[in-house]
Design the sequence.
RNA sequence: GCCAAAGUAGCUCAGUGGUAGAGCAGCUGAUUCGUAAUCAGCAGGUCGCCGGUUCAAACCCGGCCUUUGGCUCCA
């Protein structure tokens, strides 16, 4: 901030090796690095001063630690992408001078830039813009940072006719505004950036979409162009390959192909129909969790789907959740609400009798189906629906039971995720904004007690977590759990969430050892979250190739010819008796075709039978993806498959 | 909800104003076959819906419905 003109002054620079050298103030970081022959000067994307990324050609202003950011550094990607977005904006301005630039940040997996323009951008335009970008990159234009006063920046963008940029200068700039320039294109930007356009090694424009200015529906809609960039063509190709892989695994596509579920236009959007095969999977994932509930001391309850508005007026949902709720009016003019949440119902059950401290903790679970109105544009396969079933539970406990309860929730989540093969799990702790405690319900004591239970439970289990200040909802702190699927995508599944609001609103209590009525702590927790969404995630995680315990059809018998069809029928009933979900391929196809069909249906066990097997009561086992396993007695196969199913193992 | 794109057989998709097509799946028949596609035949469509233009519309125009990609992650 207060860097005075210190041109020429000798400043101490600490190199990554620990060596300390002197450099003149005003020397560029690149020159200093080059002079002292820092490793990778030529390949560096940017520099790092005291840990903070900055331009390679930024002038040295103070004594600092200096290091270089290389292309494989995670920070490098953000810089590469941000610079690519500027080049894209430059290309757009060159091709379509009437376009106004809005904003163009790097994102998690690429970048975008928003433009205002009378005409939308077409796919053909994207191709043209890409070509122009390549030209700009080839020209090796220097990307130069300028620092000017706020007023100069305002004047500059006024002159360029860029109202959106002016808005950003007005709202975001301090006394000094920085802008970057390359090839005559100027963009108000904090940086850092690449030193020249040539440094962009690999990029691709992906799509165009409408996006509201500042994300608000009140505002006009701008055109957003999405793209991505990487440090090398290989990395870009790998990324595009991942996108392709994600498309291949798309649960909407697999759901149709494997006859698992559908969404019916006639019934309305966002309502899932679980077909027979999908329903089998649902029963398995639900049954697994019910076993967990059983062993972990939960009670399982069932609450009504609709309730009088009164219930949701008490809970407060009627007021702050009204626009997401479906309501009904009866002939005798009573209002009913289709439940958007299970918690009020569970609180009513808790409240239905006097509770002693000896009754706590009460762990109340329900696969509760809720309906929430979502705007049509937000619906997305099974991931965003209007009707879904939560594996919901509410724990009512005393303050000294908190830690153990949170710990058990984490333990349950871990057990469950292991079973599905989610090895990589992230924990996120959201706490209140300590500077602004007014907007939260609950006492300071409750908040700190709850937070400490969450933190201690995580620490006790040795689970690293990220902490988000001010991210808690108004009624309590929470832990969100994210899992990483088979192709590296994160999904937020579980949540463990304190609620200081509902116990107050419903005025629930327990009688403590001292005879006093006290308010219990209340914790919401879900492991899968929504059964629909979790199902969608599982379909994509397994690419439809479910492990034996989940597979709707676990084994398919493939007779080599109808000479052994009788043996096939006999085998089918034998397997069914053993509790293995099986099918018999009675078609007159050749064995290769039957195998192909079974593989495409992703059936875990294929049992090929011919005269040899019929002779001695055996099967020739073929395991999905792994191929021929040779012959074995039927009883042995039943034992093997039975074990894999019983143990819920991921492999056959 | 808003913006863009799309909607043709169960599925994937051709079809730019003149008799609606292919592959796969399905059915029938032949083949009786040993680890990812045997051959032949048959059947299958109000071209999302409603209206308009035209001698004539899957195709052009308008409206609606649905789906898809998006809708402030540091300027």
Sequence:
């Amino acid at each position: 901030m207060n860097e005075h003109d210190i041109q020429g002054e000798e400043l101490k620079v600490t190199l990554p090796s620990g060596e300390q050298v002197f450099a003149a103030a005003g020397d560029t970081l690149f020159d200093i690095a080059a002079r002292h022959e820092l490793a990778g000067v030529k390949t560096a994307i940017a520099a790092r001063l005291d840990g903070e990324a900055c331009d390679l050609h930024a002038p040295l202003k103070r004594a600092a630690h200096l290091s270089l950011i290389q292309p494989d550094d995670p920070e490098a990607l953000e810089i590469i992408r941000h610079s690519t977005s500027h080049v894209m904006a430059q290309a757009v301005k060159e091709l379509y001078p009437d376009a106004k630039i809005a904003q163009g940040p790097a994102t998690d997996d690429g970048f975008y830039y928003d433009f205002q323009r009378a005409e939308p951008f077409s796919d053909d335009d994207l191709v043209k813009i890409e070509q122009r970008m390549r030209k700009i990159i080839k020209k090796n234009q220097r990307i130069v940072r300028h620092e000017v006063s706020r007023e100069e920046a305002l004047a500059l963008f006024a002159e360029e006719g860029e109202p959106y940029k002016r808005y950003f200068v007005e709202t975001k700039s301090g006394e000094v505004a920085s802008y970057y320039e390359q090839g005559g294109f100027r963009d108000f930007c904090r940086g850092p950036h690449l030193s020249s356009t040539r440094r962009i090694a690999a990029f691709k424009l992906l799509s165009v979409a409408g996006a509201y200015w500042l994300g608000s529906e009140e505002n006009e809609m701008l055109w957003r162009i999405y793209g991505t960039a990487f440090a090398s063509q290989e990395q870009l190709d790998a990324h595009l390959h991942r996108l392709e892989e994600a498309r291949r695994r798309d649960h909407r596509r697999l759901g149709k192909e494997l006859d698992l579920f559908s969404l019916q236009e006639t019934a309305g959007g966002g309502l899932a129909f679980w077909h027979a095969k999908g329903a089998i999977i649902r029963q398995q994932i639900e049954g697994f969790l019910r076993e967990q509930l059983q062993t972990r001391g939960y009670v399982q309850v069932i609450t009504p789907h609709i309730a009088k508005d009164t219930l949701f007026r008490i809970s407060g949902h009627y007021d702050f959740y009204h626009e997401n709720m479906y309501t009904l009016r009866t002939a005798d003019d009573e209002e009913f609400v289709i439940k958007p949440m299970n918690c009020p119902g569970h609180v009513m059950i808790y409240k239905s009798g006097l509770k002693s401290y000896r009754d706590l903790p009460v762990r109340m679970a329900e696969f509760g189906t809720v309906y929430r109105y979502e705007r049509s544009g937000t619906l997305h396969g099974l991931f965003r629906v209007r009707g879904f079933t939560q594996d919901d539970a509410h724990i009512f406990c005393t303050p000294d039971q908190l830690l153990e309860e949170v710990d058990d929730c984490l333990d349950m989540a871990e057990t469950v995720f292991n079973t599905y093969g989610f090895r990589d799990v992230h924990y996120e702790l959201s706490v209140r904004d300590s500077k602004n405690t007014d907007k939260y319900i609950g006492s300071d004591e409750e908040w700190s007690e709850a937070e400490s239970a969450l933190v201690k439970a995580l620490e006790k289990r040795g689970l690293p977590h990220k902490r988000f200040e001010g991210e808690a909802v108004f009624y309590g702190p929470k832990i969100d759990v994210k899992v990483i699927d088979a192709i590296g995508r994160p999904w937020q599944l579980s949540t463990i969430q304190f609620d200081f609001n509902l116990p107050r609103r419903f005025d629930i209590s327990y009688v403590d050892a001292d005879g006093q009525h006290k308010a219990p702590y209340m914790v919401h927790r879900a492991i899968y979250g929504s059964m629909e969404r979790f199902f969608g995630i599982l379909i994509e995680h397994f690419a439809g190739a479910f492990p034996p315990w989940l597979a709707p059809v676990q084994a398919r018998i493939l007779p080599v010819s109808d000479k052994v069809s009788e043996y096939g029928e006999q085998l089918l009933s034998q397997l069914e008796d053993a509790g293995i979900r099986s099918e018999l391929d009675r078609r007159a196809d050749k064995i290769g075709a039957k195998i192909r069909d079974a593989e495409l249906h992703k059936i875990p066990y294929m049992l090929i039978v011919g005269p040899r097997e019929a002779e001695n009561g055996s099967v020739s086992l073929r395991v999905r993806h792994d191929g021929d396993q040779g012959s074995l007695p039927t009883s042995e196969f039943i034992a093997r498959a039975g074990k894999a199913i019983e143990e819920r193992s991921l492999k056959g």
Chain A has four domains: 10-69, 74-245, 262-303+342-542, 555-646. The radius of gyration of chain A is 31 Å. The CA atoms of residues 66 and 643 of chain A lie 58 Å apart. The first helix of chain A runs from residue 29 to 35.
